[in-house]
Amino acid sequence: MKTKAAIVGEKSGKFAIAEVELAELRDDEVLVRIVGVGVCHTDLICRDQVYPVSFPAVFGHEGSGIVEKTGARVSKVQVGDHVVLTYRACGQCPACRRGDPTHCARIFECNFSGRRSDGSATLQRGGQPVFGNFFNQSSFAAYALAHETNTVKVDPAANLEYLGPLGCGIQTGAGAVINTLKPAAGSRLAVFGCGSVGLAAIMAARVVGCTTIIAVDLLANRRALAEELGATHALDPACGNVVEAIAKLGGVDFSLECTGLPGVLRQAVDCLAVPGVCAVVGAAPPGAEVTLDVNSIMFGRTVVGVIEGQSVPDEFIPKLVSLYRQGRFPLDKLVAFYRLDEIDQAVSDSENGRVIKAILRP
């Protein structure tokens, strides 16, 4: 079938709305009519070739929508189901077999290769392959092909337009707190970078009972929203030494680094009490290095990398939807909506910090 999609043709280029052809549905695939799709930092760093891709390309990996058709062997969802599209893991490596898909040995291949695992293209334009199948969806489009394994059924009572970012950015921030750091009630947490990932972490920290939640961000609007969502303190790193400021507040048991900046990671480690754990979710360019004082680690601090919130999406995303419906995880406060043909404005507003989470409505 044919569908409209937002295509980018070159490094750091503008998006254009064009007609593309979706490959025929396979037995293990699902056709989804996209209702909303979040604009994520990962889409943009791939557009900018921080992670290399080929062009032309259709990105989008925070899609939510309604199942229009299923392959013959699909049993997890059926036509009419409300779904969130998320990352895909291979399902066969040792990590996948032990129920830990975020540490899949083939996770980069599964999500960034631009093709199915057999090398076939899911998108074409003018008879030529398009880089698609991004996170097994390429959901900057009116319709997307997904694999059964990265399609998550969600409660139809929830507002589906808001749910796409649960597939990546929101589950990354919330999962880093809930699944990786696992802070006990009364714990202290500092979050460095308060975009959608950092703010999801702050909401999660409130849910699990952290009593000191420190938001660190350069933008005043983000710091204000962080406080509205549960942060007990908000620090502007341009106004002084953040590590010293956090020490005056008593230090923290946990920190979360969301910026991908090596210097900020150093701060996130140095502000920890002993023992303390710093979780790293910010995407840095390949080859980026960080310098740490060995003694800061040797005496009991831990640094851990986190992919996709260390979540099993079929379990974790419905839990976040339940929290959202209860009013305990107000992700709607992060969102601004745009039409698909307004994608360049949505990207600009996201990059300039005017919006936290842009969602496109195809």
Annotate the secondary structure layout.
Layout lengths: L1 E7 L6 E8 L6 E10 L2 H7 L15 E8 L11 E4 L8 H4 L9 H6 L10 E3 L2 E2 L13 E5 L3 E3 L15 H13 L6 E5 L3 H13 L3 E5 L3 H10 L3 E3 L6 H7 L3 E6 L4 H9 L1 E9 L13 H5 L3 E4 L7 H13 L9 E5 L3 H9 L5 E5 L1
Parallel strand pairs: 10-11, 10-13, 11-12, 13-14, 14-15, 16-17
Antiparallel strand pairs: 1-2, 2-6, 3-4, 3-8, 3-17, 4-5, 5-9, 6-7
Helix pairs in contact: 4-5, 5-6
Query: What fraction, in percent, of the residue positions are helical?
Result: 25-40%
Low-pLDDT runs: none
The helix/strand class is: alpha/beta
Q: Please give the CATH architecture of the largest domain.
A: Alpha-Beta Complex
Task: Return Rg in Å.
Answer: 20 Å
Strands, total number: 17
Head-to-tail CA distance between termini:
16 Å
Overall geometry: globular
Instruction: Determine the CATH topology of the largest domain.
Output: Quinone Oxidoreductase, Chain A, domain 1
CATH superfamily assignment of the largest domain?
A: Medium-chain alcohol dehydrogenases, catalytic domain
Oligomer: single chain
**CATH class membership of the largest domain:** Alpha Beta
Number of domains: 2
Largest sheet: 7 strands, mixed
Instruction: Determine the number of helices (DSSP H or I, runs of at least 4 residues).
Output: 11
Q: How do the helices and strands follow one another from N- to C-terminus?
A: EEEHEEHHEEEEHEHEHEHEHEHEHEHE
Task: Average the pLDDT over all residues and give the rounded result.
Answer: 96
Give your account of this protein's structure.
With 362 residues, the chain is of the alpha/beta class. The protein has two domains: 2-153 and 330-361, Quinone Oxidoreductase, Chain A, domain 1 (Alpha-Beta Complex), CATH 3.90.180; 173-307, Rossmann fold (3-Layer(aba) Sandwich), CATH 3.40.50.720. The protein is 27% helix and 25% strand. It has eleven helices and 17 strands. It has helices at residues 41-47, 94-97, 107-112, 169-181, 196-208, 220-229, 242-248, 262-270, 294-298, 313-325, 343-351, and strands spanning 2-8, 15-22, 29-38, 63-70, 82-85, 123-125, 128-129, 143-147, 151-153, 188-192, 212-216, 233-235, 252-257, 272-280, 302-305, 335-339, 357-361. The strands form three sheets. Strands 3, 4, 5, 8, 9, 16 and 17 form a seven-stranded mixed sheet that branches. β14, α9 and β15 form a beta-alpha-beta unit. α4 packs parallel to α5 and α5 runs parallel beside α6 (220-229). The protein is globular. The two termini are 16 Å apart.
